[in-house]
Amino acid sequence: MTTDTNRPEVPEDLDDLEGLGEVPPPPPKKDRRVLRATLRWVCAVAAFAVAGAGTAYGVTRADRTDVPGLGSHSDGRWTYPTLVRPPLPPGKPGPNDDVRNPAGSHFADLRKQVLPAPAGATADTALKGADGWLPTSTFLAEFTAADRVGLRQKLVDHGLRHITARGWTTTDGTHTRIYLLQFDTAAVAEDLLNHQFMSYSSPAYALRDGDQYELDQKFPGKARSDDVLMVPYTELKPYGAAQVRQAFLATGDTVGVIVQSRKGGALAVPFEQTVTLQSELLS
């Protein structure tokens, strides 16, 4: 079954994942509920502000015309193609089935779970990668030179298996980059997000195009999925020629990093729409 781009209701599939060589054994397994609780506590500042204001961005429940960001072309949303997850093989569980899949493995081909570009966008060929897998150095190029060595080591220490990505530029000049990083287990991915990518209210590693950030307290609470840990940030003024928005996701064994930049200011609606739809595809 296919569905509109406000919420993909889709079947599941498996393409065998290709290993990238030996990886270190995962650290001792932690209680995933504790890891999720830690991140949700950090996000509570943003979520509380949104919920208190009664903001409705019900991507998973509201009709398309009732959803800010997905209701009409005049609000700045983009037109995405119909989204379909690759189906899982018979008997294989999804990444958030804690009983049958305690490792949180994505059995479907991760390359087919990256959000496609919206209509009219120009693809970023630098993120295509070889056979769909991206070199670690291309992902690290998003960050300042001073942070790349340390971040590379963190990825090695956590047993990074694959990176797949997609990028595009829309007609209004917004440049979007989406990276999906796959590890051995959900515990490893969530630990990386909780304790490495985040530093209290700002990202731990500086993007090359950004400066100072804060938690995006205006990100709609109802756009969040219970199965996806998500932390959005927005660059503070005064920013340079372009403003940057970024979000970190974690679901199952995968961490997602989404970056949007635009000269004069990165708009909230396409950022929220992109982050929400990518979360849906991964959950």
Can you describe what's shown?
The chain has 283 residues and is α+β, with helices and mostly antiparallel strands. The protein is 23% helix and 18% strand. The protein has five helices and nine strands. The protein has helices at residues 32-52, 136-140, 145-157, 186-197, 268-282, and strands at 122-123, 162-169, 175-182, 198-199, 202-203, 213-215, 229-235, 242-251, 254-263. The strands form two sheets. It has a seven-stranded antiparallel sheet. Strands 4-5 form a two-stranded antiparallel sheet. A hairpin with a 6-residue loop joins strand 7 (229-235) and strand 8 (242-251). The two termini are 17 Å apart.
Write the layout of secondary structure elements.
Elements: H1 32-52, E1 122-123, H2 136-140, H3 145-157, E2 162-169, E3 175-182, H4 186-197, E4 198-199, E5 202-203, E6 213-215, E7 229-235, E8 242-251, E9 254-263, H5 268-282
Antiparallel strand pairs: 1-2, 2-3, 3-9, 4-5, 6-7, 7-8, 8-9
Helix pairs in contact: 1-4
Output the strand order for the largest sheet.
Answer: 1-2-3-9-8-7-6
Question: Hey, roughly how much beta strand do the residues contain?
Answer: 15-25%
Secondary structure: number of strands:
9
Please summarize the sheet with the most strands: 7 strands, antiparallel
Mean pLDDT: 79
Which regions have little confidence, pLDDT < 50, spanning 5+ residues? 6-30, 37-73
How large is the count of helical segments?
5
Q: What is the CA-CA span between the terminal residues?
A: 17 Å
How does the helix and strand content classify structurally?
alpha+beta
